[in-house]
Amino acid sequence: MEKENLMNAVVADVTARRKGGRKTGGFTLRDVAKLAGVAPITASRALNTPDAVSAKVLQKVQAAVAQTGYVPNLLAGALASQKSRLVAAVVPTLSGPMFLETVEALTDTLAGAGYQVMLGQSGYENSREDALLDAIIGRRPDGIVLTGITRSPQARRRLLASGIPVVETWDLTPTPVDMLVGFSHEKIGAAVAQYLHAKGKKRVAAISGDDERSRRRATAFSEAAVRLGMALPQETDIPACLVTAPTTLGNGRSGLRELLQRAPDIDAVFCSSDLLALGLMIEAQASGIAIPRQLAVIGLGDLSFSRDLQPPLTTVRIDGTAIGSTAARFIIARSEGKSVAEPICDLGFTIIERASV
Amino acid sequence: MEKENLMNAVVADVTARRKGGRKTGGFTLRDVAKLAGVAPITASRALNTPDAVSAKVLQKVQAAVAQTGYVPNLLAGALASQKSRLVAAVVPTLSGPMFLETVEALTDTLAGAGYQVMLGQSGYENSREDALLDAIIGRRPDGIVLTGITRSPQARRRLLASGIPVVETWDLTPTPVDMLVGFSHEKIGAAVAQYLHAKGKKRVAAISGDDERSRRRATAFSEAAVRLGMALPQETDIPACLVTAPTTLGNGRSGLRELLQRAPDIDAVFCSSDLLALGLMIEAQASGIAIPRQLAVIGLGDLSFSRDLQPPLTTVRIDGTAIGSTAARFIIARSEGKSVAEPICDLGFTIIERASV
DNA sequence: TTGAAAGCGCTAACAC
DNA sequence: GTGTTAGCGCTTTCAA
């Protein structure tokens, strides 16, 4: 049979290639094309732009693909077309559950458009960031999504020089490297102070991770609190209790203990994450402090568990999913040659009122 | 000056390339080589195997790199060398915090060896898995790390045919596709039953996510419980209370309520995740049930918060970090041409005794 | 609608 | 130690 002979010939080709020098992979587009009796470029078109070939050719190519189990080499395609369909995402760490939603939404939205996400962890100190950036740029992704804004001029220059679309997230700045999807940490701090003040709180404090963004929220919170005439713990210059990032439940417990020593009469605490807030609630319960009657708590993140706590946790909701999917859309648009009309996007935040305040 | 002329010439080259047809990227290895006055391959060696070139050449190439800001195109390198230094990781979802540690350890360990991680989310139903697999294989990663074992024969065949090293994780099977790093869910179920029995518990139940692995743990738990003479809730055939995966704190609360209706006299509950256990503890506290006096709880995962709960949570510890770093080592070894001596690795588990039982 | 030629930017293999 | 040659597997451009 003709068809069998062809297949045998192609298999022989592959085997020969494997032996002769480099042990190169399996079937290639050329093999598929040969089997289908067309030129490689035609097979390529059948796979990438099926509308551009005749029904007959399409069918023959599809048959050849099925027969061989051919999977296109996207590396080669990327090299030739200058489109890698790869997007890099850089987070400080995965384990603070804050960025998870964003990475998840990013991955899902991009996967729907045929892109894959490459993950990078920078750590909270930006030391590894430069090396990471080179590793990323070297792969020529179609986009880079960064958590936080880029401070190092070195990194900014490299990003700019690469010409790769960049989305900075989880923060706001008038001078982004390229595009931006975030919200204002300062406004959150101020809004929380205002909220607690409106609820009649008089002596407030913050338990805050000591990463840069949390500190800015805590500072804004303290300044607004003072402006509104609320009292802060006085024993120290720092108006907040700082714990190491990423924040944990244990930090929340020890944070409350420390806070109560410094200022036993506080009536509200702003925690820089819901996990901290949960720790605080557990510690409060263990020490017989009633929430919200004796002490009000407000967290940040609106993690999935927050609504189900006892009492349900009042918190600042940040829509991590929207950040991820917006960033994905920005990158996809750019990568398809469209320019993004409004490349700076403030997604804001919402204070979710529940029973803990 | 000679040097400046050279640089100008090279820049002119790049500009010409950009105009003439394809708007190709920035500096290439050829430009760097030209600037350094050596052949491209020599520049390549200076970058990849610095020991293989003279000090003089090395210095000249490094100068040229610094001058141009050249970042090697790893896509092209991968195509030529058949080594992508990319590893794919597939998880059902990122948001159950169980797999986070694994992904984190994988990313970190691989980054140390110059590899990047590509992330894929398969969802708990394996429908998207086949498409995802093709997208992954198409990028010719040097390794694929899967969460769970691969059941679909279709997927197994494709993985095998690809010739890419595969590590299946978070489970055990005598017939892995390739390599395996995991533990036995059946043994966990049995061990927990045994543990509760040893603690004098008589009427036990399980609250379990309804994903495949959790169900197997719950089943093994129930069977062992019966064998040991403990009572299970009787109203239903299912010996456990199933909640939708991924498990949440809210599920834990509602799970306990449901369980208490069916069997008000239970004295111990095995939760398929620490998050469920936390929900159960919160619900118990809200209903005035004392833990562990009236009801003992054991979770699974030993998440970072578990030790800090009130009471601290007894749980089954699974070393997600070890799974990730072992998988990474397996892949690195393979990808360096070494064969992995013992490619099936049972990392086991530990019951961490705390106060909740 | 299809194809031939010419690369994408790099490295393996084999000289020198 | 360094260079020459010839691809890796695909897509672009241009011609038929």
Classification by helices and strands of chain A: alpha/beta
**Oligomeric state, counting identical vs distinct chains:** homodimer
**If you compute it from the alpha carbons, what radius of gyration of chain A comes out, rounded to the nearest whole angstrom?**
27 Å
Order of helix and strand elements from N to C terminus of chain A: HHHHHEHEHEHEEHEHEHEHEEHEE
Name the chain pair with the biggest interface and residue counts per chain. A-B, 65 and 65 residues
Would you count the extended β strands of chain A for me? 12
On the 0 to 100 scale, the average pLDDT of chain A is 91
**Fraction of residues in β-strands of chain A:** 15-25%
Shape of chain A: elongated
The rounded distance between the terminal residues' Cα atoms of chain A is: 80 Å
Q: How helix-rich are the residues of chain A, as a percent range?
A: 40-55%
How are the strands of the largest sheet of chain A arranged?
A: 2-1-3-4-5-11
> Total helix count of chain A?
13
Q: Largest beta sheet of chain A, briefly?
A: 6 strands, parallel
Low-confidence stretches of chain A: none
Keywords (chains A, B): DNA-binding, Transcription, Transcription regulation
Domain HTH lacI-type (chains A, B): 27-81
InterPro entries (chains A, B): HTH_LacI, LacI/GalR-like_sensor, Lambda_DNA-bd_dom_sf, Peripla_BP_I
Protein name (chains A, B): LacI family DNA-binding transcriptional regulator
